[in-house]
Fold this protein.
Amino acid sequence: MSVLIILFLFVVLQDDELNHETLAEASTLEEVEHDYGVVEGSDALDVREGPGDDYDVVGQLDDDTRVELEGQTSDGWYKINADDINEDAYISEEDLVPVDEPDEEEGYVDASTSVNVREGPGSSYDQVETLSQGESIDLLGEVEGWYKIQLDDVDSTYISGDYVTFTEPLEAAELTETARTHGVVQGSGSLDVREGPGNDYEVVGQLDDDTRVELEGQTSDGWYKINADDINEDAYVSEEGFVPVDEPDEDEGYVDASTSVNVREGPGSSYDQVDSIPRGESVDIVGEIDDWYLIQWDDMDEPAYVSGSHITSTEIQEETQAETQDQALTEPEHSHGIVQSSSLNVRSGPGTDYDTIAGLDDYTRVELEGETSDGWYKISGEGLSDEAYVSGDFIVPVDVPSYDEGYVDSDLLNVREGPNTDEARVHQLERNAQVAIVGEIGDWYKLQLADVDGPTYVNADYISEEQTLMSSDRSHGIVQSSHLNVRSGPGTDYDTIAGLDDYTRVELEGETSDGWYKISGEGLSGEAYVSGDFIVPVDVPPYDEGYVDSDLLNVREGPNTDEARVHQLERNEQVAIVGEIGDWYKLQLADVDGPTYVNTDYISEEETLVSPERSHGIVQSSHLNVRSGPGTDYDTIGGLSDYTRVELEGETSDGWYKISGEGFSGEAYVSGDFIVPVDLPEEDIGYVDANVSLNVREGPGTSYDQVSSIPRGEQIDVVGEIDGWYKIQMDDVSGPTYVSGSLIEFYETSGNEHIAYTSYDVTFDEALSIQMNGSPQISSASGGFQDASEADVAEYLDPSNNNQFQHLLLTESVGVSANQLNNVLSGSLDGMGQAFIDAGDEHSVNEVYLISHALLETGNGTSNLATGIEVGENSNGNAQVVTSGNRSNLNNIRTTYNVFGIGAVDHNPETLGAIHAYNQGWFSPEEAIVGGAAFISQRYIHNDYNQNTLYKMRWNPANPGYPQYATDIGWAVKQVPRIESLYQQLDNPDLYFDIPEYQ
């Protein structure tokens, strides 16, 4: 025996390869519980040719690799199916998780909001992560109803199979329970049914008017989920054109009233009557709302309601009048009634034919003894005899409330005109307001409010008999727990009604003496409480996101400098602010566990701005939104059109400019994607100074493509300067346009006189020929007109002839004070210098031109139109000049002024001019000046033809022949003396001339 053992050992020692084979053969494989395994916790797991670390490594498996298991040794090694590595392949159980093969390799989270990820296959394992509804997940294996999943940065991750689906789910809409069980289509003719709660979802069917469907729930934004399996599994309709109801006991009924029943536009006697239905008439009932029936009534397009007390399910037989008057009483649904009338007659019998025996004031509560079939109540109460009746039209049936006074237990409680949330809101009550409760209807209290006319109701859930809660130190609280139970009362004995995640912010309604907070927030209704042990009280911060305004900011675990530093933040780093405690902000930082606080002095609402490279920017978009902050999430506060120039105050790190400019105050931002930074040009108007024409390029340099050209002498609008190049505005070229600044000249200036020359694409002879073809006229000595000779036309057409004031730019200001202008004004225009300046500024018209026009039209300010004519409105609302004979028949009489003779047609100038002024609202000389300037500017100067000098108005060198104003070829020159005379009376006026040059 000893010899055999030694021999065996000798053989083993001599042949290591034989030893491996022998051991491998000797390892008995046991059957595995799961068919597959997943590599976990190892980036490269060694695969060996035998079950032990002394076997050769024949390959490696990456983390999260799934392999098929063929068997298991007793010492913790798995034989795997890995033919691509080696025929015999083993791995250690230490880095392998046994699983079953999942049905699919990919799934989606199917939960109301999110699902917990745990470190093992069961709810007892620690939570390591959460996944959101609809999120895609890679499934590695299945273990007893739990899926092992692949998550970056986390090794051991499992989720319950109950929350996994293999089809990508639609975004779930959170449903709340509806107040009614059914709904009826009303007034839409045909209502679209969609597969989700919104107009973006596909239409899967339609419902006809008066169709009734079952309601399964309601979204917060006004959509109902309905039971419509014959249309689609998920079926939604909009609340518009839809009336929530309860299902009636019968779909058909008969009017059971003494004569007829009123049809009202809402479910209550306070609604307007819109029709009536005779006794015995059949009605189709489509829904019920608090003892009122919604009926299908062909005579009405809108919803129609009748009181259920006047509807019976059996056909009515004719009765004698005596039988009708001697009606049997039925027991009312509610024990008492509240008078809803300033004075209600009490009668000796159930009808207006009976004697009045007493009267009841508004809000009197009486006991209801019984109800007749046609809506009269027999009542009892203090001071009433045995037989006392009132009309049900003025009684609101109620039950007696448990207390007659209560307190509002809500920050702001809606008061409605009926006992359900579908009724209109008529008032709001603040927390702890004391109210008088006169009755109870289901879950609603009927109130008597001194400052509200009409019926008033509040939900009973928000009224308490006493004020119990103490005010909390701070308005809100932050959850500091991975999951916090919300309970129906202040203690762990109360039911759990919801759960809150870490960092959820809730409103603190009050605090109990033992440390529980009553809270409110999204998804919470009625009584909701949480333990103060897991709440950090805070105030709401001024903004929810901020930026670090310090080179390096310490983050501490408590709101003071004595607390430990747990993190540091760099300048302009964005942070989520969840609350404020004194001078500290509570933050939510994804990469820091536990509480985090920073000092408020080092957080700002905006990024620190850097100085822009250039002082101004030009809008390069047909419409650019101006926002209240640097991003598209901020509100739009204005808009800028193409080529608007704004001042650049600063630039954010992500390309937004803070701007300033006319019409903007405070914080104003635009996206840098639509702004071209520029410097201010020397002038805004320039002229081309090239030999023939100037190339227009798409960028500020000769390397950019040419997109157009501009002839010599052409006027251009300069909006900005970039390194010696001008950015210009060209209406006939889309996209950016630039010209070299070396080839642009501005006005020739001598003192206050500025002269520019504009070249036109027509020769003088061509222009003269065109004018002659139009049969030009010249004024004759006799006062009429006669044909003008070519020499006469050439004399006036030549820009270098005659008075230079015919080339005065009527768009430029004269640049003098109101006092100087007052020196040339007279009559009713005396002292109106500032008005002419304001009119010129607002409408870009030369003040002297306006004054010249006004003095000419008003006879130096003495005409009736200038001194004022009274106008009023007749019975038809039409304007009419006031006379002694019609004054008593006119309304809204005002004195009107018309200093430019606008609308004063020759056949009746004063009447028509005054009526035009009345219709324009010119009730002072100032209003007439500014309003008339607008007319002149739009009609003659700033029109599509840019005829901004008297010469251009008469001859239009840009397009000779049309449009041209005035018949007399000498018109432009003849207008000049008055204008020149006015200029000569002013000290140092500004003169801008634009003289045409023909080729």
Observations:
- Residues 1-26, 319-325 have pLDDT under 50 and may be disordered.
